[in-house]
Amino acid sequence: MIFKSLKLWNFKTYYGKHLFRFSDYGVGVYHVTGENKAETELGANGIGKSNLFDGLFWTLYGKTPRGLKAGNIHSWGAKGKTSCELSVKVKKDTYKIYRSWKPNKLLLTTNKGEPKTVSQEVINDLLGLTVDEFQFTVLIGQFSSNFLDLTPTQKLSVFADVLKLDEWDGYSTKAYAQRCDLDAIIVSDESELAMQRGQYTARKEYIKSRRAEKGVWDSAEQAGQKLRVQQIKELKKDIAERRESLAEEDVDNAETLAKANGFLAKIQKHQKTLGKLRTPSDNLIVDRRVLFAEKTRHVGEIANYDNISDKCPSCGQRVSVQHLVDQCGAEKLKLALVVKKIKKLDKEISEYQTAIAARQAKIEPLNIKHRAALQVNFKLRDSCVHMRAKLGSLETTLSQMEKALNIKKVNPHIQVIKEAVKQQAGAKERIAALRDTIKTKMKVRDESHFWVKEFKAIRLEVIKQALSEFELEANGALAQLGLSAWHISFAVERETKSGDISRGFNVLIDSPYTDEAVPWESWSGGENQRLRVAVSMGLMNLVLGKKGIKSNIEIYDEPTSHLSPEGISGLLDTLRSRSLAVQKTIFLVDHHALDSGIFSGSVQITKTKKGSQIS
Question: What is the bridge-based pairing of β-strands 82-90 and 2-11?
Fold first, then answer.
């Protein structure tokens, strides 16, 4: 895992955009220090040294080592979002991890691909380190919980996670569960074996009784066939009688329909004659209306002549009295002719009306007879329809009965008997198979019982080897820190003064000043701090080694607390040796003015009123 660069935007004391390249620093120890120009009395304190690596931690895990999240990491008073982007190489691929606040985003870019929104679990899987493991292996912060500060139970939990001890417990538990499952299965199989034996015996009796029932069924089926033959005979007789009745109804229906059609023909003949009479009658009526209009006009003309003196009512010229008399006489003559024609037409119209009335009088009785004949015909037709439907239903029933009669029924007991015999044979085979299965599962059960204890033994061996490695690493670091005559011992169980067993991860220290090993908490000040650093380095090597992870950096935040000048010198020598041995870049964050040739260089951070700057 190679950390390449870190970008910060409005993160804590880092206002605006900042870039820190891890790749600019080679193997060695680098002093992260600087100057506080905003508050000179603080010296190198409060300049943002820890904030730089808080940005790394927040990018990876969404919080700082002290647990700050969201708005608490935003630069006070700054406008815009807070975000960080880390470039890191894991195995052969280079990733960019981008996290922001307002809006909250977590993006992952692989090589030169497109950024994708991911969950925190994806980042944890990519790094291979949980948030606690990162603080034990990469960033040993001044406010982070040191391994030694944890309770024995918490230490044991961390140790178990690193070594994946739960897996061995899981294997043992799985073997135990498998043994229990097999016990239950064997009991179940033995129960089934007893049941199969009982069923095998029961099926013998069952087959015997079924064969007796088969004979009863055959006798009943023969009697049923005789009954069905008789029913078919009676149904055929009923159908024949209904067909004869239907034929008679059809004859009556045809006769009534012919009778109705005869009446209809006479009616149509009279209506045809009636049509011939109405046409000339209608024409005469029209002619009479025309003549009546002409009569009215002549009457008006005569009246005009009676009321004039010396002017012609036709042309308006002055005329003689004799001329008017002649004209009036001519109009009266015309009127007399028109009246004569009207009288003639009235006579002819009356004759036609009389003939029409006579014809209508003949049609009405025929209509009554026609309707009566149709009503009789409709009733007969409905009766025929119902008779045909009933006849069809009976013929369908007859067809079904004849088909059923021709179908040879199979005795159902035959198949049941065959199936029972087959099941009996299957039960016999199942009995043999169960015997073999029970024997095999008993063997596997015994093997599972063996592994229940064996996996626990392997777990203890893993713990033993890991404790040995841990002690070796920690004591090596302790010697480099100036406590060569001291020895750190680790144990997951120890006996208390009362004789009880204390379960947990216990840390005991042998020193030139004690007759026996004592808990590490007995020490304070410089010895305590040296013990912390030594255990941290040992745990770091153990965790990374077990997980197969190599990191190019280590960060120690304020590790010189409580150390004497000699202790600080020893720590720097240890870190220098460590950086060369593991080929890492080690950043030592410290506010002390450490002037040592041990350092390969420094990271200078200056804080002004505009915030922190990296130089």
Answer: antiparallel
